Here is the input.
Amino acid sequence: MRDAFVIALVLFAVWTGWRVFRVDSMVRASFSLMLSFFAVGAIGVLLSAPYIGVATVFMMAVEMMVMAIFMVMFMMNPAGLNPMSMVHQHRLSIGAGAAAFAALAAAALLSELPDAPVPTDKAVVADLGHELLGPSMLIFETAGVTLLATMVGAVILSSRQGRYGMADQGSRPPGLEPGGEPAGRQPDESGGGHHHDHGGHG
Amino acid sequence: MSATLPLLVLLTLAAGAWLAAWLDRLIATGRIEPLAPLRVGAALLLRQRVTTEAPDAMNWRLAPAWYLALAAVGLSVVPFAPGAALIDSPVGIVVWGSCEALTVVTVFLHGWSPNAPFPLIGAYRYAAIGLPVMLPSMFVLIAAALPAESLSLVAVVESQREAWNLVRQPLGLPLFLLVGLTLTLRGPFDYADGEDLAGGTSAEDSGPGRALWQLARLAMLVAFSAMAAAVFLGGPLGPWLPGPVWLWLKTAGIMALTVAAGHWLARTTPGRMLTLLWVGLLPLSFLHLAIAGALAL
Here is the structure.
């Protein structure tokens, strides 16, 4: 019974993962990927890893929400409902996909996986906590800080190139006709120093 | 007990949603009309469904159902009697946290899918406010789990036999109430369905879809109130009366408090609220967690 559930969840995870590249909107792609991760989290719960399984659901719900917002923000598609292609750089992607699949398949086939059922009275959540905040603490903290630095760096690098030109040169909307006057309100030439104030909060 | 738990959860959701709608009306208008919510709901069910140009029909139809399902899952980890929850998960608090996070996704999809301006603005506004609200929520819930030394809600309730968490961690409930206002799209945190956006994410809703969305909001209020009662007021613990009755009484009390806060507190602009959340509430909740941690040591 449990095996049947795991197989069904694996198939669902693969199908929703495939949908990520077939749908025509960033929002749909984000939430397809979220469903794929949910299936993996459910497999974790079935394999006696309740904390990892449920935390995957929790984290992915937040992360994919953030990702949907950021992707729509940086794409030429404000609402995310206009059709657009989710694939690019075909040759590189196919190569990277095949290499990653081969490496992961080799890791799954060549490593020795435990097959003994977990005793029902084992305190798996407490054991995981002792591991995370004990011997593995340095690894996890390093990975966490690295990921955070990567995210901040990626946002800074990608936000310089704005939709209407470089962000640090002031935005200038495109002309109504090619090479013509910019559309909308004219940028204020005299009042320099306003370009730092694009948060608008507080 | 265990055989009646599914029935208890469904009964609590249905009766609690009606009570919440009645309280809403009572506090907003001062009129005592216990049948009015049912009448309004029945009228909505009979009304025709209108649609927008090129919506994402699947997500638009499903969003109210997801919202209702999240309320039901959230309520089912709450113990109705000492040691008896429908889903007795060792990580019950994380299950509830997932329901909170998915509520943000659901409200976003509900506003995104009609492909119309007001719902879309409501959806983005709510996502921007809802995500930072998740952080104080997690700190508050982790603080409540510290005295119990467990993420299981059964253990959290059991740890309050001596003193309620409301007494041990007085900042917890006020902070958690703000989370409840966000989860149920109410008052100062109603950036999704606010009247300044002509109804926001539900601006294009009509007929049965609108009725189900409003019902789901009320059901989420029930689930949130029961969770707050279990985490801060000892849930089903209490003398003389049976466990479920104590839980219902405390849930109704939290519900009245949340509804009143939603009607009486003013809402500010999203930008100011973001500053308040990141600069004010987040450090405050972290301080709360640090104090709870020091006390638990």
Summary: Confidence is low (pLDDT under 50) at residues 191-202 of chain A. Residues 1-80 of chain A form one domain.
